[in-house]
């Protein structure tokens, strides 16, 4: 038996030992089983996925050969509606500090009933990222090794849509309805040519103006997007129709969840201005943090799922003020200024904003 088949057999044994390799059907609560582990798909990060198992072990390769180390990882990704899901089964062998390249990666895509829709095996590659489109019809994943970087797009029946051999970033909308990826080699003197892939796998080539391309920001419902090009922010609708542009030195633009307004963060003052998405008319602004009746200068500001918050600093405390897209103050919290820890983490749960230190947060 060759090394690759041995790796496949060991991976199968490790998975089946704890339960069924093919996950069982989901319930209305979005629970599935992977091996002997029960997972709630609602708890899986939509973009980063979730590691279900990570196992390291040693196999004796015979008296005349050194012992071989193996690393096995099972990673789970889910769709935006938390129905369909994908498993990435990675096995990598290495000797001491020197990694070998006999990686065996198995990609499996399941529907909401736990039925395996298609499976792909790759030798010598690892899969780190996976995105399932909003309607479950498209699966995109990264595929890399020491000599290759790229993304593969597949239909739900396993048909290859297109393979992109590129180290460029894949831009994914928050609802996974739209994807953008550069489809030509970068040319600093040429136009920026991208493929726009919709949730059903249809591809449209889009040519943006010349310049240094810095990224794409989608609106929350993916009806619009902004590209950052040199010192300009260019606003498009999702049909790739250009609407307006604005220089960055006037402030960085962020979409709000109503898609009727945008937030402008002024770099010189840290003031927050909310303007109409099409007319640029000022609706309101936040120029300070109010604490005990006093105005505190804005120290920093952040967007959080369409809401936003500003931070003021006074003596040994931070003051957090949370607003919705209409400019209504939702909540104010104070936390101590901590040293030797990472910045605070902010999240929203049951309608309330919660602030926690990022201690040991990876």
SS element count, helices: 1
The Rg value, from CA coordinates, equals 24 Å
**What is the overall silhouette?**
globular
Strand content: over 45%
How much helix is in the residues? Answer: under 10%
Task: Spell out the blueprint of helices and strands.
Blueprint: H1 3-18, E1 31-34, E2 37-40, E3 50-59, E4 68-78, E5 85-95, E6 98-99, E7 104-110, E8 116-123, E9 130-132, E10 138-145, E11 148-155, E12 160-165, E13 171-172, E14 178-182, E15 192-198, E16 203-208, E17 213-218, E18 224-229, E19 232-237, E20 242-247, E21 252-255, E22 261-265, E23 272-276, E24 282-286, E25 289-291, E26 294-296, E27 298-304, E28 307-314, E29 317-323, E30 329-336, E31 344-349, E32 352-357
Antiparallel strand pairs: 1-2, 3-4, 4-5, 5-6, 5-7, 7-8, 9-10, 10-11, 11-12, 13-14, 14-15, 15-16, 17-18, 18-19, 19-20, 21-22, 22-23, 23-24, 25-26, 27-28, 28-29, 29-30, 31-32
């Amino acid at each position: 038996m060759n090394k690759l088949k041995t790796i496949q057999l060991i991976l199968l044994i490790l998975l089946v030992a704890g339960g069924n390799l093919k996950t069982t059907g989901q319930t209305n609560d979005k629970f599935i089983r992977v091996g002997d582990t029960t997972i709630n798909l609602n708890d899986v990060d939509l973009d980063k996925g979730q590691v279900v198992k990570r196992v390291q072990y040693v196999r004796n390769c015979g008296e005349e050969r050194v012992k071989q180390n193996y690393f096995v990882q099972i990673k789970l990704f889910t769709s935006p509606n938390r129905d369909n899901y994908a498993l990435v089964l990675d096995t990598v062998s290495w000797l001491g500090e020197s990694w070998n390249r006999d990686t065996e990666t198995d990609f499996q895509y399941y529907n909401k009933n736990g039925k395996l829709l298609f499976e792909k095996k790759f030798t010598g590659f690892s899969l780190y990222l996976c995105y399932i489109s909003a309607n479950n019809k498209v699966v995109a994943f990264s595929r890399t090794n020491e000599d290759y970087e790229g993304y593969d797009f597949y239909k739900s029946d396993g048909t290859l849509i297109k393979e992109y051999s590129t180290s460029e970033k894949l831009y994914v909308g928050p609802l996974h309805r739209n994807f953008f990826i550069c489809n030509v080699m970068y040319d600093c003197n040429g136009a920026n040519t991208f493929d726009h892939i919709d949730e059903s796998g249809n591809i449209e080539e889009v040519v943006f103006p010349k310049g240094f391309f810095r990224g794409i920001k989608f609106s929350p419902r993916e009806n619009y997007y902004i590209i950052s090009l040199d010192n300009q922010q260019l606003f498009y609708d999702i049909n790739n129709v250009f609407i307006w542009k604005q220089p960055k030195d006037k402030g960085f633009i962020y979409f709000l969840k109503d898609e009727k307004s945008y937030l402008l963060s002024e770099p010189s003052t840290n003031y927050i201005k909310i303007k109409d998405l099409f007319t640029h008319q000022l609706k309101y602004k936040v120029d300070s943090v109010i604490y005990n009746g006093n105005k505190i200068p804005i120290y920093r500001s952040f967007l959080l799922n369409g809401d936003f918050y500003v931070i003021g600093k006074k003596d040994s405390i931070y003051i957090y003020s949370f607003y919705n897209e209409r400019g209504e103050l939702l909540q104010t919290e104070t936390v101590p200024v901590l040293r030797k820890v990472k910045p605070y983490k902010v999240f929203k749960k049951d309608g309330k904003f919660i602030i926690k230190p990022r201690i040991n947060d990876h």
